UniProtKB/TrEMBL annotation:
Entries under InterPro entries matching the protein: Acyl_Trfase/lysoPLipase, NTE, PNPLA_dom
Keywords: Hydrolase, Lipid degradation, Lipid metabolism
Protein name, per record: Patatin-like phospholipase family protein
Catalytic residues (positions): 50, 187
Name of one Pfam family that matches: Patatin
Motif (DGA/G): 187-189
Amino acid sequence: MGETTGGTPGAPVRLGLALGGGGARGLAHIGVVRAILRAGIPIHVLTGTSMGAIVAVAFALGDPERSGVLQKLEEGALRTPLAVAPGERETLMSRLRRLVAAERILTSNVLGWGSPLLGDVMPLLNQLTRGLRLEDAPIRVGVVATDLETGERVVLTEGNAALAAMASAALPMVFPPVRIGKRLLVDGGFVELVPVQAARELGADVVVAVDVSVEKAAASVKSGLEALIRAAAICSRHHTDAILEQADLILRPRFSVPIDTLDFDKSRQAIEAGLRAGREALPAVIDLVRRRAALTRRSRT
């Protein structure tokens, strides 16, 4: 696609993807990005919030397929100790194990910042980002986080990529906050669940937003942690709708099975849903880029 736009003659139309938060559902972003890149459509800007930040950083810094980390994610590397592993039979011992894990999580969060519910994710992020910084990416990449002390929206575009992704995904009661400089950062979903505005700020001419948040009532809420996550999602829904109005195209992957925020054992289904959504959107994405290029050409004449 050789379409051009912008203030510089011959400059390409800058396509941006805004990848939203949504826990395990956010793994659908892997499929969306794969579909667009495999179709030969260049992506010039990637922004992400929470799980969207992890995927955005991974693809912006190169080919994450080669690292093997994406395969680990597909195989459930982020599975929580509260979940039943695929093929595991529900037994009295498995119930007791999850009960003990839940008690430890609650106690650690009440008495301190807590320990990561999903295990130690930083080694996984370090492997995914290969120790690189956000500014090392060949395309513009930014991740959104929330300053817990000031309430400000923060768009990270520089610094350690793994730490930035961790900050954007640091959901309270799941992960401890991340200190970067003078800021104490937590999940960016509280301020910009789908980072459309961030993509515009980084120079995207056309913004495709990928929204994997829950729109309807959850099928079931089984614990206080899930209740907290669900309540946060409800609070951000109205704000997110206003943000999405700024996007040129909104993709909402359709999942073949219900996937809750912590259902990382359903990674494959989430990625497949994103791949389907990305493929279905290809004609619309190409049309948007071409129309933007044509509009720019007319404005010059």
